[in-house]
Predict the structure of tRNA N6-adenosine threonylcarbamoyltransferase.
Amino acid sequence: MIVLGIESSCDETGVGIVDLADDGTVTMLADEVASSVNEHARFGGVVPEVASRAHLEAIVPTMRRARETAGIDRPDAVCVTIGPGLAGALLVGVSAAKAYAAAWDVPLYALNHLGGHVAVDTLEHGPMPPCVALLVSGGHTHLLRVDDLGSPIGELGTTVDDAAGEAFDKVARLLDLGYPGGPALDAAARDGDPTAIAFPRGMTGPRDARYDFSFSGVKTAVARFVEKCVRAGDPVPVADVAASFQESVADVLTLKAMRACEDLDVDTLVLGGGATANSRIRSMAEERCAAAGVTLRIPRPRLCTDNGVMIATLGAHVIAGGTPPSTLSVATDPGMSVQISAYG
Ligand code: ATP
Ligand code: MG
Ligand code: FE
């Protein structure tokens, strides 16, 4: 069965196509992405109206390229992200998905973007056992419990303020490293000392929620540190600040993920979302998983950032799990809860 997925929740227009075999195996046939990231750079963050317009321009050509790459005329099902995400951006993908599903006379599946970030790992590492998943991107930070990709996902915790990737972007801006700041900050940190400055570890006290995150405190601490340097007329030690900040974020993320694995007696941790490209988050997760005897699964970076094939892959698991299709009147759900995988 050929399953097509459309993604337009943020600044990437993605169309992916997978083949769902009778035994449940999912294979990638196409993964086409058009990004408007450069159009947002001068604003220092994603501008919703700019993103919506870019989706409108990109959706049909991206769809054409994906079908050409996969060598298919029409799929057997169309899947689309209906949330969470930017309302206007989601509308473009959902409207297109409805039009294609109606024109091709195939079922439509309305899916959760966050579930896609977890499901995409099966393309790379095969069937997924019950696991803990840590999603870190520009818009999201979630610690999840996944029993079965065809069923609703359980949320253990999330951020109470900034997303981890958002914190990377904001701190990179404080350090004049450009946008998106995550990759630049990662590179700057390579020459720094991660123990140079003791930045706070948000929400790791004994009375804090076990699985929730907070990154606004460390961001403010960086801002204060930079201000102090400027006021004193000292140069800002950019590499040391970047490395120490990155160490704090990686420490908290992996500490809570390992805690969840231990509490739930789960021996697999899956990482997803664009910020898992971060070298220190990866290496610390590797070190801590190895020490705890937990198998770590991280899809290649291309699959960690937003794309359409993650939606096609989640769709394949949802279809295999027997969820009925959505109706053509299904709405977008910008604040969609991760506990809902699909609207049947
Ligand atoms: P969503 O939140 O909906 O998934 P997004 O576009 O914000 O969408 P992604 O495209 O998955 O998220 O990832 C982009 C984010 O990842 C940005 O915040 C970026 O700074 C961050 N990022 C990318 N590479 C790195 C890196 N090496 N280190 C730290 N952060 C990174
Ligand atoms: Mg993005
Ligand atoms: Fe995403």
Summary: The first strand starts at residue 2 and ends at 7.
